[in-house]
Structure formats: C-alpha cells, structure tokens
Fold this sequence. Notes:
With about 240 residues, this protein is of the alpha/beta class. The chain is about 25% helix and about 30% strand. α6 (about 110-125) links the parallel β4 and β5.
Amino acid sequence: xxxxxxxxxxxxxxxxxxxxxxxxxxxxxxxxxxxxxxxxxxxxxxxxxxxxxxxxxxxxxxxxxxxxxxxxxxxxxxxxxxxxxxxxxxxxxxxxxxxxxxxxxxxxxxxxxxxxxxxxxxxxxxxxxxxxxxxxxxxxxxxxxxxxxxxxxxxxxxxxxxxxxxxxxxxxxxxxxxxxxxxxxxxxxxxxxxxxxxxxxxxxxxxxxxxxxxxxxxxxxxxxxxxxxxxxxxxxxxxxxxxxx
Length: 245
C-alpha cells in the first residue's frame, strides 16, 4: 500500500519487497486493462501501473503521489506519466475512463473536507460514465486489534538483507486509529520509525460522501473474491461511477 510513512526515501526503496503484488492488484488490473486512460491515486512506487504496461496496456497511464521518494521508484519506467501531488492539487477535467486508489490509501483522508475534496477531484477527472475503484478496511472487522508488536513481518529485500517490521496501535477513537511502525534490519545502525493515523468509515458513512459527490455505487464487496460486505469482512471494496449526465 502507498502508506504515508513510506515517504521516507530509504523505506520507499523497500516498499515493493515488503508489499508484493497481491489480491488488490489482481482485482483492479482487468479494469485498468479495459480502460483507455487510467489515473492511479496514491500510486506509490508505481507497481500497479508498471504491471499494466507489462500486461499490454497501450493507453494513457498517470500515477499521482505526494511522496517524492515513492515516485523516484516509480520513475524506473518512463512510459507512464508520474505526477507529484495529491487530489487537493489535481486539476484534470473529464480525462480518465478509470481511476483507482489501492492499498487502503483512501484511509489517509482524515477529515470530512479532505474526503469531499478527493471525491470532487475524482468526479472532475473522470469522463462521464468513468469509474473509480478504491478500498478501505471494514471497521466492523477491528483489524487494528492485530496491529501489535507480537505480529512481526519479515522480508528479504533486494540487497539480500532481512527487514523486520511491526505495528503498535493505539485505541480506536471516533473512527480513527493511530499507530507507530518499527522497522529494523541487522545492517542498520538503528531501527527506523514512522507514525500514521487512519480513518475508518462504515458502509453508510461512506455512502453519504459518495452520494454527496454526485457519484453512484456500481459494485461493493467485502473482499477481493467479490463476496458481500458483512460484519466479518476485512474490506469494503467499492467501485463508483460518474453518471453520464
């Protein structure tokens, strides 16, 4: 996921090893390949758009991200437009058939105003009939309860070294969870740390923002296998559409 803490250039270089292509990319890729023009919001290292090119996409691909360190990784391919910024600075008008926001990046939109600005920018950027796919963790699943130092991830990165990471989350308060992530590797002088805050919205609250933006829900699932959203679903995967008129 294009986590906000991967703005650190050193961590950005590790991102793809720590977050390999998985279910969300496989879910969105066919929609990207079916669209002539695509905007990836919070594109991170650009891995999804890289994959689209590798899979034969010949149209326009644009990646938008606020972290220069992530875009430095994305620019390994020069056949994609890479833009530094976020939806508050976006000015595209009726240019894209499909937009996407992967890896729970939607959850870094923390205020109502940020959400409204983001949805309005997406609506403007889409052509009439264009669609926007995004995902957010289902608050009913209470996934943050597993973000503890006892749940450690370990990966081998490109230089052959091992990096371990874990989260330490605070309580769920009014729809928000703040957490610290620790990264350590035997070759480092000291661990690296980052702090993040995410917002969790349930289906009704999410629907209110979508409707207010003048968008329509086309599809909504509780996981990448297209099962319905339930109280046990880890995800709320949503595809919205800009109406034709």
